[in-house]
Amino acid sequence: MTTRPLRVAVIGAGFMARAHSHAWRTAPRFFDLPREPRLSVLVSRDESKGAQLARDWGWESWSGDWRTVIDRDDIDVVDICTPGDTHARIAVAALEAGRHVLCEKPLANDPADAAMMVAASESAARRGVVAMCGYSYRRTPALASARRLIADGALGTIRHVRAQYLQDWLSDPDAPHTWRLDRAAAGSGALGDIGAHSIDTAQWLTGELIEGVSARLRTFVTTRPQRSAEVGLGGTGDPDSPRLPVDVDDAAAFIAGFSGGALGVFEATRMALGRRNANRIEINGDRGSVAFDFERMNELEYYSADDGDDRQGFRTIQATDPAHPYADAWWPAGHGLGYEHAFTHQIVDFVRSIESAPASPGFADAHQVQRVLAAVEESAADEGRYTRVR
Amino acid sequence: MTTRPLRVAVIGAGFMARAHSHAWRTAPRFFDLPREPRLSVLVSRDESKGAQLARDWGWESWSGDWRTVIDRDDIDVVDICTPGDTHARIAVAALEAGRHVLCEKPLANDPADAAMMVAASESAARRGVVAMCGYSYRRTPALASARRLIADGALGTIRHVRAQYLQDWLSDPDAPHTWRLDRAAAGSGALGDIGAHSIDTAQWLTGELIEGVSARLRTFVTTRPQRSAEVGLGGTGDPDSPRLPVDVDDAAAFIAGFSGGALGVFEATRMALGRRNANRIEINGDRGSVAFDFERMNELEYYSADDGDDRQGFRTIQATDPAHPYADAWWPAGHGLGYEHAFTHQIVDFVRSIESAPASPGFADAHQVQRVLAAVEESAADEGRYTRVR
Amino acid sequence: MTTRPLRVAVIGAGFMARAHSHAWRTAPRFFDLPREPRLSVLVSRDESKGAQLARDWGWESWSGDWRTVIDRDDIDVVDICTPGDTHARIAVAALEAGRHVLCEKPLANDPADAAMMVAASESAARRGVVAMCGYSYRRTPALASARRLIADGALGTIRHVRAQYLQDWLSDPDAPHTWRLDRAAAGSGALGDIGAHSIDTAQWLTGELIEGVSARLRTFVTTRPQRSAEVGLGGTGDPDSPRLPVDVDDAAAFIAGFSGGALGVFEATRMALGRRNANRIEINGDRGSVAFDFERMNELEYYSADDGDDRQGFRTIQATDPAHPYADAWWPAGHGLGYEHAFTHQIVDFVRSIESAPASPGFADAHQVQRVLAAVEESAADEGRYTRVR
Amino acid sequence: MTTRPLRVAVIGAGFMARAHSHAWRTAPRFFDLPREPRLSVLVSRDESKGAQLARDWGWESWSGDWRTVIDRDDIDVVDICTPGDTHARIAVAALEAGRHVLCEKPLANDPADAAMMVAASESAARRGVVAMCGYSYRRTPALASARRLIADGALGTIRHVRAQYLQDWLSDPDAPHTWRLDRAAAGSGALGDIGAHSIDTAQWLTGELIEGVSARLRTFVTTRPQRSAEVGLGGTGDPDSPRLPVDVDDAAAFIAGFSGGALGVFEATRMALGRRNANRIEINGDRGSVAFDFERMNELEYYSADDGDDRQGFRTIQATDPAHPYADAWWPAGHGLGYEHAFTHQIVDFVRSIESAPASPGFADAHQVQRVLAAVEESAADEGRYTRVR
Q1: Residues B253-265 as b or e (16 or more Cβ within 10 Å = b)
Q2: Does CATH place domain B5-136 in 3.40.50.720?
Q3: CA nearest B333: which of C280, C15, C233?
Q4: What is the pLDDT of residue C231?
Q5: What distance in Å separates the CA atoms of residue D234 and residue D104, rounded to the nearest whole number?
Q6: Do the interacting molecules here have an ipTM over 0.90?
Q7: What's the topology of domain B140-338+347-388?
Q8: Of A46, A92, B219, D211, whose CB is crowded by the most CB atoms within 10 A?
Q9: How many other CB atoms are found less than 10 A from the CB of residue C184?
Q10: Does C317 touch chain A (CB under 8 A)?
Q11: What pLDDT is stored for residue D231 in this prediction?
Q12: Architecture of the structural domain at D140-388
């Protein structure tokens, strides 16, 4: 490619920063991009490991302070991979400085922060500056194909949305504490971490908004041992470590009403023993249905009421076929894609949106997810009473 | 068998009466029973077809009036397969007359009726007369095996119950009207018809009771064409027929709190296109999990946290192995059982309970299900507010 | 039914006799039959248990000698459920006596016997006497539906047949000896017991004949402990019992050429640990494919190349839908059928064939299976050389 | 990493060269490598696209002639991704020049070539020069985990190997011609392309060698339209194009005897409509079984006879758990890996073998696969007679 480079700074040094680093490196190798990404700066507060991570993940340089990066003229994109409580500050400053922003979900822990970010993104849009939120599951080919099916009317009128996001890495009561269990940093627990994905996916797939919810939250394990060192998700903490309080939910369940009349049932948990990353959604319309489970991420189940009486059934579609979104850039049919491919696709869509198209999901879309999360918490605090999303 | 015969009357002429007839005929051929059932009388209000059905299904005689049957000295068992609004009258009369009673679920449409039935069953029990309610799914070998696993502690403390009962025979808006869509006869819609099974199964498997619920009901299709004739479930009605109102729910969703602290999520619908009879339940404890789907009724999924790190996963157990309840009476392992086998097992357990054991589920157990159903309806009418089961 | 009774004698007292007994009793309850079966006589060489089995399984009387039964004027049907070495004698005598014959598979252990049986059946046919062989899997709704699909051209030209019949009840080297491991009684091992089903199913589904085979047989466990008593398939023998020789195959594999050009790959084994009764077949044509596994006997997988590019995939069809053969006689869609239903359907088809139609599979069809079995054994003895079916 | 760079040249410009390019770039980002790969030269005969591909895939330079590259002192590794007929020349020259060699499978089309390559690799090994063959499926975590289970004795004595490699990209008779259908370039058809993978996997998993085979080959479509341009696998050719002959097999089937006594059944086809890349293998021992299907590449099925009677079943193990080979370098459990990850793992193992360990599979291992392929062709030409692998 002989394109104008797109100079990127990533903020963060955790699991998500690594996934984004890989995606920035990989996207131009498999897709035609209007601009060539350049991995300019990695920002990590932990100076001792910043240089190492930058080298390991392929960044040209590193910095200990995100503020200095935003002010540099030679940075085009700020990619925010830090915990949710820091998003607003960084994103607003970056947008005001004219940087395109890709921000991990959840958009913000605090509703006021989220609203401020939306305002900043709208102002930026008028100056041609792009803001996108990282609901990466939208870029899984099977789900992107499901959305196309639904948009084409293959399901008819939607009646049911059934979404579960089941993990089990907190099932062990001695799994160590992490910032994801700290309300101040994470906003909420399973609800905001993984339930947010279900909400975004459900609204995006159906093209309908959640209007109200009736909810219940549960925390099964209220203290956990301090983690001795950064050892990834899961694992077993040292039982002799001091125990820290857990002030977020382990599990969230809610019933939702959709703008088009569909009935939604949602569950998010990190205690469903045996389910590693079962991000599942099923949608039933009056003409067809789709079902998806991220543990079999290359498959989409699709049922059509138009099939003949003796040959009706859920089809197991391999979303690696070239007819599916993103798939033809990769390998022949049946050669599966993995988790990180959705991040690569996200970079592709983000870079293209800089040149030509509105980013999706924009901050307003992500704000809508936050509003649903807020309604869930409000309903749960009000004995489950049906609470309007505002 | 050279046993004292057990003379049975079945009340009803529909789908359930047929399933029970087959079960009464089949049970003694595959199981040792303490008494030999004799299919004495079939009762059908429709006199024109009573004789025919009795002959087709193997009953010695027929009657048009259940009252006359109950008073006969030569009847030992009254097996009630009529719609829910008639259960109380028949069951109470039969118990008072000293007949053992097997009553289809739901126990009764009306809470007062149900309470009366419980009282009658308790009084009867003191006279050695047995009353059982027909929650037949308990007799599916895979579920009976799951219960044994849980009772043995294989799942540890239960955290999650996830139950869905998904059907689609009402998905077509022109599927004909039936008594199951008439509140007066059926009590409720998907909730009482199939959701009741999920409630019973969940409480029975976990050994915990549902203490409160937060619920929402939906009716998607509010009128349906009159059925021209008895043509079974489903099918398409004549669009030119007059349309009758549907005054029950098409779908029910509720979140439940269990007595042991588990979080339950329930959904019952007859509009989940592509799901014919997906009676599903998954239970996650802190040591293991089980999952079941009636569409694969001979399989039980089981996950054990005790398995080695590199060999953990849900096992697909074939419940046809002789180690599973009921299974060794039938065929070699891997030779599947069907829907009606649960009814046969129900007869086996019922007959044995007459001789020796308390019937399970008794009317009090079934009443508890009714109380949950009532709390669901109450919560749904109160904007989903968490409602105690009383 | 007010029909002329059809008086039946069953010969045998094992697993198959029991399955047939149940089927004879059940068929008229769920299907309209032109004649009403009457369970007249059970024949068991073991006089001590004949009376008991007759009573348990619902037969009016019993006899210790099949010859006396065949000569009785009041017997219309002889149903042969004995080991293969006895089939020819009984079947030929019964046909000559004018009895309709249903004979379990394999037709005969010896080719000359089989030829004689075919001749007897042809002679009988001219006198209106029916002979059918018990390849019961043809009556599984999912397979019967697959046959209809193929006959309708939904698969186009057949290229591949892939059939496996996998069991594991002999995996334990101390599983006890049985007549099925004795060449004189059983003819062969896995090959004739279960491989024969695969051969029949493959030829029947495709409408093509196997023309030649290249084969290999294996016996992994060459002696087994004597069984102390009749305890069903499987189980563990007493290690202290004397060990008897196994002179049949534990496993058979062969490659087949079909008359229409398809390439077949077959495997039959009773040593595939973990596979209880995986009777599997997949057929690929140039327009579509079907796949079936008896362990999920209510499901048929079907792939159509006519489906749109982004919605192609194997459909999991629930063969309990009323559009599938036999299914509408039973329960609503999604309420699974079991192993014995195929036997019930076999009786239905057999009784109907007595009144109106040629029996299928007739003895000539079953003889063709025997000829394939013989070619397999011949090829295996000749270093796997491709051997024509003669 | 501050390691001595490892300067790599890739030979080829097709699908495999792309997969290897990605792997060379990605391996050091996720794994600690003893030396840092440097993507020095891409070699493509097609000069017009060499520069473009080098740029797209991240190579520093390109060349039109592999000979010039091998002689360069600044190249450490030659990675051969060309059709099989060119492997021997390039590999032998590279090894003699002291370059480490990674060579795509099949090792060579011609047995004499393969033997020469083995000799060259042995000579090179004495000089510390490494040669590895690219049987990449060995690096799929699920299969690598299966091998560990088997090596640990979890399956006991192996009795059955059941391997199918099913694709369908040639099902359409107008799918265009490609070098893979030309015997001179490809050696054989489905047999050498995908059947070779099954052979390697089976021998590697079991630790046993195939000693003899009984085989049959089929070509269903004997001419195909010339491809207008390079458009990837599959697709539909222009029916107006001239048709070129297909002189390789579309499908191969063979029965195998293993050195440890196991019975193998193998099938490879590119005409199994609906199966995109079903690289399947099941192995049954006397203590356990494993099963794998690449279409669900992140799952391993495992059955243990040690499980309790009422809880035996195939476990669906998610090979993304960190306990599985390679998995902990990537994402949390349940976040699937894709096809290309095996190539990345292959680079990891290859680079490590340069520093410290014998490469596996070495050329001798790959030669053994070629010898099995030769025996298959010999047997197929000799009417399927069992043919020893020599």
Answers
A1: bbbbbbeeebbbb
A2: yes
A3: C233
A4: 45
A5: 21
A6: yes
A7: Dihydrodipicolinate Reductase; domain 2 (3.30.360)
A8: A92
A9: 12
A10: yes
A11: 45
A12: 2-Layer Sandwich (3.30)
